[in-house]
Amino acid sequence: MSRLFVRELAGAILLVGLVALGSTRLLAHPTATSFVLIEVGAMDEAGKANVAISVTTDRQSLLLKLGAGRTDAIASYARTLIDRLEFAADGTSLPLTLERVTTPAGKPDQIEVVLSATITGRAERLAWRTSLFSGYPVAIRPAGGPPPAADDYEWLGANEWSTPHSFQSSSSGPHRWRRAASLIALGFTHIVPGGLDHVLFVLGLFLLASRTRTLLLQISAFTLAHSATLALAALGLVSVPSAIVEPLIAVSIAYIAIENLMTTSISKWRLAVVFGFGLLHGLGFAGALAELGISGTDLPVTLVGFNAGVELGQLAVVLAAAIVMRLLPVASVNRRRYLTNPASAGIAAMGVFWAVERVFFT
Questions:
Q1: Which of 106, 156, 245, 282 is most open to solvent, judged by the fewest CB atoms within 10 Å of its CB?
Q2: pTM score > 0.85 for this model?
């Protein structure tokens, strides 16, 4: 092994290590950490209806956005917070009142902000938007009903208005085509840009695949496996704590990358190994749907839509990697020395870092 190559490997590992140490929390496996639930009460004799708005998001992120140092200081920033939230009835924004700030049970890293509003008269068009975060689900529904299902949620971007809701008709939820598009978008963004660990795993598969057929076989095995466990987890037939799943996902990333460094060809066991790791990643994908109460009737649509988005995200990663590989001025005979090995070393370092972080620091 030449000194130049050793320096390349060391540099890749050092670079990834520095990035990882500077962004410990940001690189943990992501789930849907921000969501909004709006429950509209029944109209009283005076023609008024109370609205309860629950905004749940990442604690540290909200504190940074508001400039608050502690959770108990958020009430002092109520005006700043409310200025970035908007709930409207028939096109008119309603005054919001901060009721309380709490920590959801079992989720110390999150924070729940509960607000209230009052609707006067029979509003036909209720809508919501916020600039606090992007790529989040919101549900606007009558109070007192069963827990929200996936059909009750709509995924929005920053400052994007929700579909106007009317509880005077049967079509209060978003249209089916828009709901399907939202689920596909959720799956895609869970990979790009939200799933760096999954991206690195797919890149690890890409780096050692010398032929398109070989790569497609590995991606297919990975897809089949994670689709199976995602469905089983969503059905409640399989349940593995994230404290176990997330470190193992990190180990899978490191394993694939280290194998890339130790061999120049794909072993006969590679597909079986990729399939096994795909089972783990499927349990990780299930975490993205955990906040959505999926009922039996909407489960097939939800799984198909989300899975389609995940596959599109994976294909986007592979396509981008192939384009970059083609554009780089590196001859095919030098590809392993200057691209495959340094990149695999960096991915391995990141996988090991995540494994340690998720076992000892989360």
A1: 106
A2: no
